[in-house]
Amino acid sequence: MKKLPLLLCLLFTGLAATLLAQLPYTNPALSHEARAQDLLNRLTLEEKVALMQDQSPSVPRLGVPEFGWWNEALHGVARSGYATVFPQAIGMAATFDEDAVFRTFTAVSDEARAKATHSKQVEGRRGKYRNLSFWTPNINIFRDPRWGRGQETYGEDPYLTTRLGVAVVKGLQGPDDSHYAKAMACAKHYAVHSGPEWNRHSFDAKNILPEDLWETYLPAFRALVQEANVKQVMCAYNRYEGDPCCGSDRLLVNILREGWNYQHVVVSDCGAIDDFYKEGRHETHPDSASASSAAVRSGTDLECGRSYKSLIEAVNKGLIAESELDLSLKRLLKARFELGDFDPDSLVPWTRIPMSVVNCEAHQQLALEMARKSLVLLKNDKNVLPLPKKADGLLVMGPNADNESMQWGNYNGTPYNTITILQGLETAVGSKLPFIRTPHVVAEEMVQATIDSLMASLPACDKVLFVGGISPKLEGEQMRVNLPGFKGGDRTSIELPTVQRALVNALARAGKQIVFINCSGSAMGLSEEANTCDAILQAWYPGEKGGQAVAEVLFGDYNPSGRLPLTFYAGDHQLPDYEDYSMKGRTYRFLEEEPLYPFGHGLSYTSFAYSKPKVKKGTKTLSVRVTNTGKRSGEEIVQLYVQRTAPQARAKALRGFQRVNLKPGESKIVRFSLDDSTLAFFDSNQGIVSTLPGSYLLEAGGSSASTTCVRTTYNY
Length: 716
Fold this sequence. Notes:
four-stranded antiparallel sheet; single chain; Rossmann fold; 20 helices; alpha/beta; six-stranded mixed sheet; globular
């Protein structure tokens, strides 16, 4: 008789499973939308509200599993154990290589699927950092080099950001014609969000000129929605023209959903709904219930945070109708059905990707390829590089030479092994190298004493490889950093920290040949170093294989081909007010002074020559012949810049780029389409971006500097 309750329990459990299996939402043969609608109809108000939060609990009675929406994959799967760590996003931007970025994020999504399947099948975990909704990529425009999160972006140019952002999304989400999405990407942070970090919860990006909004801040978001079919858009912390971005009808309703026909999920940045009502923040709403209602009504489907718990109260008080929640929840459920989240793994082909792909040899080699292509040779006086591959007379110095975590950037995973720059150099020369670790930053009153101590202990050397710059511990997202030149994750100065500048000057006075390797996620003011150093290599935060890549470039095993995805200004004096979102005086498009190094700049160990570009009548195609005029093979990144000269003259803008690999003496003809999108600029009469009949100046060359380009005119 004691076994009867157990038998009844098993009987009822089996019966419940049988009944569930007969419900439409459990039928994989139905469309994702039909299944989402059927499941939605069976949920209570309390269950609906719970599923509109980023850590969505299970609903056992309906067989709905737990789901963690918050996962990161900025440059590799992050925060969930071992993974391949590729160069930081700004370094990937320096590759100017759409195909390589697509292949990188195909590898990232392979690892993501393998790890998610393992977490579910082996560990029984499906929550935060364990699932397939990735809040990547960050496609905000890096409009000011002081922004600490600029390292997460693809630079200052809307076109480059667009092309690489599309590649990221397609690599993460998999083929459009697949029944099940491989993963979900997320275009963030929508919109007009590029710092400051310290006041982002109260900042109002206002008085934005229409031409800046449509030419600079929105193009990448539009492309990811309309071309890449991105599954998520994250609304930003700040206000836009008075309204919090996560409650902005202008951004979310008029532009995103109605203008661009966006059908998928909008998620809030973490804690952004709290900013609507908490004291000292936006304070646009009186409480959590009214703030949450406003956000949902504007189309913010999912909250990262805790305010949406008050939606139950909001419905009960009549602040919002349950049917309005249903609009958002259906989008969330449909997204999960598209991932195969409710179906047996046997039906979802992506679940067959094995754990052996995680940080596998092929992915490590891809990380090395990306690191190589990301390195930008800024200066090389008298061809001091490449160096002879010998240890004699070499000294390695600096805060970043033997610094693993610097190379990982932020929002990172953990590789099985990291090759630091010091390790890469020592492997290249086949022996240990003398090394002096120096600080990133010291208090101003300690600078001279620090320099005196370091110079007093300097060993005999002819060449110093100084690996300096800053680190992700100094620049990043809303950080507790208050040191000279840094504030809350941002920078107050772009100049090289004083102690490093003083040390480089002391080495130069001592007659040392200096090769400066700068590691940073942003543009540095290096005007003094450009005078005192013989060569400068920009290394970014180069990922797990960064040390090997740097050594290969310095010793000539790899010919550098990276290009700057942002302007390196001559110094702080060239920067406008950080909190002014006008593009006047910013980036290569609007800077009226001469920068230190222009957008698109990067040297090679060979040289390239361009013929005069030609536009063949009736083809709408520009062609230019590029020739390797040097003595070794190399890759040139051929860049196309377009400027509308009449009517309504607009600043020139990047509208095409191609990597071309050329042997010594070899030539290739590079072609660029002159279609409507290539010639589109803001039209003040219509208030939109459009292509106008008129005159256009076309420049092709190795950087944005007109002195490096060949040009022609084109009448459209």
